[in-house]
Amino acid sequence: MKQTTQVQSNPFPYSDTNKRYYTYDYYLKQTFGGKCAKIPLDAGLTCPNIDGRCGTGGCIYCSGRGSGDFAQLPDLSIEEQYRRTREQLSSKWSVERCIPYFQAHTNTYAPLSVLHSLFETALSLPGAVGLNIATRADCLPEDIVAYLAELSQRTVLTVELGLQSCHDRTAMLINRGHTWAQFCQGYEALQRASRDIRICVHLIFGLPGESEDDMLETVRRVAQLHPHQVKIHLLHVLKGTALANMYERGDYQPMTRQAYIETVAKALMLLPPDTVIGRLTGDGMAEDLLAPDWSRRKVTVLNDIDKLLYERNWQQGMKFEKINTHVTWC
Fold first, then answer.
1. CATH number of the domain to which 126 belongs
2. Which of 23, 31, 109, 231 has the most beta carbons within 10 angstroms of its beta carbon?
3. What is the mean pLDDT of the chain?
4. pTM of the model
């Protein structure tokens, strides 16, 4: 008798592989007809918890590039950054369809005229089929939100909001510079402006002082917002950061590999089944990574998440419970 494969027996509806969660690759295939090359860009902007508006020094885990370590240097024009990265990626896969991704620092933290020039330039680049903008929920003034709403009528626009944790005590510890309530205000401002704005929420597992219950509580709250996309990151300890100082003093211990895999699998079950999972772990520059060393083997971590979901017959959304009321977690 012919054996059923994991792909054939996969009960999860938003998948054409063995993945029991809504992968970003599956989303791209459904939206654009195939893979798109995501092109990281650095517009040379800053953050309000760096320049003094709500703090200095930035988040304790953030590198000097503001999570834009894989982008070209900001002294290059947007056009040149895009061209160089696209050329580099062309040796790995097709770059006919590309998504310019303003990744470094806070990409709505500038006057509207500056942002208009940046985003319109990106949309005019060869092969650009959409636009991703990473920012903070406390950096969404009315004029910029209105512009983003207008952009969402012309392209596939994803606004990526860094939350990391819903717990205000954690936000203070990591020098985030905003509260859960402020995050919700920004999130809801985008939703009111246009339902065509696809919102991606970033979460970090392994933040100092957080238990598994704390991390899953954040996931539960975010699930009630029903975002279009969620990215889950592992907290990396990078050289030159405030977190590195904590780690070297013995004041911070990274998550173990198994604890991370278990927590991610449980988180997937809490999220809505139709929320796209943008990523399930993060990348740090290899030469700057202090810990955890096991994170260097990202593919094996992802494979073991798949294995755990299969062995326990778990899938995304199994424990998602929508609160039947107008009141949300915000």
1. 3.20.20.70
2. 109
3. 93
4. 0.95
